[in-house]
Amino acid sequence: xxxxxxxxxxxxxxxxxxxxxxxxxxxxxxxxxxxxxxxxxxxxxxxxxxxxxxxxxxxxxxxxxxxxxxxxxxxxxxxxxxxxxxxxxxxxxxxxxxxxxxxxxxxxxxxxxxxxxxxxxxxxxxxxxxxxxxxxxxxxxxxxxxxxxxxxxxxxxxxxxxxxxxxxxxxxxxxxxxxxxxxxxxxxxxxxxxxxxxxxxxxxxxxxxxxxxxxxxxxxxxxxxxxxxxxxxxxxxxxxxxxxxxxxxxxxxxxxxxxxxxxxxxxxxxxxxxxxxxxxxxxxxxxxxxxxxxxxxxxxxxxxxxxxxxxxxxxxxxxxxxxxxxxxxxxxxxxxxxxxxxxxxxxxxxxxxxxxxxxxxxxxxxxxxxxxxxxxxxxxxxxxxxxxxxxxxxxxxxxxxxxxxxxxxxxxxxxxxxxxxxxxxxxxxxxxxxxxxxxxxxxxxxxxxxxxxxxxxxxxxxx
Length: 463
Hints:
Blueprint: E1 2-4, E2 17-19, H1 22-27, H2 32-40, E3 47-52, E4 56-61, E5 69-74, E6 79-82, H3 92-103, H4 115-129, H5 139-177, H6 189-199, H7 203-210, H8 223-242, H9 249-259, H10 265-270, E7 276-291, E8 294-303, E9 309-317, E10 331-338, E11 347-356, H11 369-382, E12 388-401, E13 404-408, E14 414-417, H12 423-433, E15 438-445, E16 448-456, E17 459-462
Parallel strand pairs: 14-16
Antiparallel strand pairs: 1-2, 3-4, 4-5, 5-6, 7-8, 7-10, 8-9, 10-11, 12-13, 12-15, 13-14, 15-16, 16-17
């Protein structure tokens, strides 16, 4: 998708022609069927009208009723809206309009926004620029609210503590009986225990318990080590939680988040103490996982100028919209805030000022895997439960030995690619680079790699 800009930002970078590829648009489709339907609507003749302004693109397309559906895309603070009754977000019309713009950008003439587009865009702009105001309450109301909040927190803490005690007892019984009994346990035992952790309002613990059910117990000689490491991490987490009163304030927040307290983006955005980092943020990749009706989207970010790394996590269902979705491969100039933690990593955008056309420079690169593992070790020292290291590494190449893919560095040291990683993305890496060394962005997780993209001629290409 190409977007035309006429302004120059505070850094002096001109926003001219921004391109979203078909692959990037496909990444935000709610499912393959929706993308296929959107593609069928991306032909010019399907649309009765379409145009663009400096902040939006829009179009009208005939639907099942007498009036055409009105579809619009916010291209400054990316979002989408359509008047159709679909409960998928984005709907096939939104995907079709974006694909039409990607394939025929010159057909979109600059125009004044119609009233239905202007109203929506003005409301979004006003909301983005509106300062957060605290509700004005009397001293008595404030005291009552604070007491209720403390009481709620105390009740929650007691429920979680009960779950922690139950899980600790389960782990001790497991170790006493012996880990060799793990493969013999019924497949639903871990799911039942995880459900009890959710009932105890400790969904974070439920996640860790669920990992026992994902161990490959047929992999003799390997699963024992994985299980022991998992037992140790969970036990350390439980002991840390039980030592809550002796922890520093930042570690109290960290351990509560690990156990299952959610962090409020609204409170973070309203906080005057949060550090705001303005940068050009490369959305290096997106990892999507599905658990029942809930999809979790992890968006990996790299601050080009500050070399900061971050992750934005969005949760959605089949019928709910993400308020501010991120497009993998895009470059956002914006203000970013981290949630407080012992190792700040997850956060949200406070503002997204503009989408950039190109990288002003490449992000800082690690020289080899030795540097990456040293950084990985330092990260684990700060937070032993932090599993993922987002890294840019210099001059690496992809190779296959027997049934295992490897990424080797300029010193001929290598790291294994996750066994279940999508083969088509690895083949795309080979096609882009012609099997020559390149700078790449990867996630190092539990000593395995999840490649996200590669750099070619100062451009970032998603896998």
